[in-house]
Specification:
Rossmann fold; Arc Repressor Mutant, subunit A; 12 strands; alpha/beta; 5-stranded parallel sheet; single chain
Amino acid sequence: MRVLVVDDDRRLVGLLTRGLTADGFVVDVEYDGNDGLWRATEHRYDVIVLDVMLPGMNGYRVCARLRAAEVWTPILMLTAKDGELDEAEGLDTGADDYLTKPFSYLVLVARLRALARRAAPARPTVLRAGDLELDPATRACRRSGAPVALTAREFAVLEFLLRRRDQVVSKAEIIAGVWDEARDVDHNLVEVYVSSLRRKIDAPFDRRTITTVRGIGYRLVDEDGNVD
């Protein structure tokens, strides 16, 4: 899941980035309202964490501008203020949820996942393709009822493909959705992780779930799919 955090509190942002990354999120950061508005408009995110008090443009205005531009990415607003009027203003400008600082990290993560699910009804809590199951909340993978051990990166690649089941996705799209944007990732690395996933989720179960579309990328299908 890709998250944009827009907050000028660098200490808090650092803590959030480390925590969210460890929990399997891909995190982009901006410290200014104008920069946050640009990034949220130009790039695709599953959810946005947006502070109210920002240099350049406050969070209320950023949120309002995004909605005016028909950017419907779920927005969780953060503020040091605690009051019904502040909460109402945030929600009235188009925010989907609201947290007052200081807040519980566990509550933040739970709300981010809930917002992502509500934003796309087709995204169930547990992702499935045939007898393959992936639970992003518990970081568990099972095939035919048997647990499958995955590394954090393997899990993220598989989650990306499952959320786009039956769609052809390029290596560039996988990199953009799974790796931090600032990192220079070789496209061949995608092949490495796809091969590793095939060895873990397909070969032992006599399945062919991740198919190759030559010259384009990959498609995740139900277990009886064929490699092109």
